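Deliverable D5.2: sample structural annotation.
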Amino acid sequence: MLHIATVHFASPRWIEIQTRHLREHIPVPYMTWTSLQGIDRSYEAHFDRVIDQAGIHPGKLNNLAVEIGSEADDEDLLMFLDGDAFPIANPMPLIEQGLSRAPLVAVRRAENGGDEQPHPCFCVTTVKTWRELPGDWSPGHKWKLADGTRATDIGGNLLRVLELTNTPWVDVLRSNRAHIDPLFFAIYGGVIYHHGAGFRRGGPSRGFYDARPKPLPLPRTPLLRGVTAQIEKVRLLPWRLRTRVPQMLESKRVFEKIERGDSDWQAYIS
């Protein structure tokens, strides 16, 4: 049995899209487990198990794994899937091939400045492996990015657990070119789509923000710091108009294509 853990927050906009693609592309028996904080209870009908949760995204994923582990067999597969992610082809060959090489298969967003950690937009392991590691999606552990800075993000602590236990994992990388956004609108391994920032209006990814103008140095006195902050807002306005607004419109455009089921949406992002 395959158990799929996914979190939806404040908006149901991806629920029917995600569950439709699961039905179309998952050929093995599966159960869906979710958290629907801030979403009308009528949407619970789309899932097999709905767990009442609050808190932040990593904690919800961790708790869903605990709930799944209380019912599932050790050798059952555990799939984590972001709410704005879904298969666009049968993922089982990718999963089976990956798990024949290592106990865990997951997206690695290398395009996000060189991220090293597994990402929960798509991750598969067994219930037993997740329990024994133990798995943890919390940020915390830091790694070095391509520009030399150190960062942490969701999955940081999982990366460290894998390192400390000498557990290998197979990374699934982006397979479509990044011509709309360096991070969002991504297809991984040719089988998983991840919209990115799907529960927000949009806005540039870290790749865009890393390229923004360098901030002005902050003066020591509070008065001058306030003046500098106002200058900074005005100074960054042209950059925001060139990047944030077009990306938000693009996010809306791609979502609407997917929602309508347009036949060309994958070609559009590729």
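Annotation notes: Residues 222-260 form the longest helix (39 residues). The chain is about 35% helix and 20% strand.
The annotation will be released with the project's public dataset once the embargo ends.
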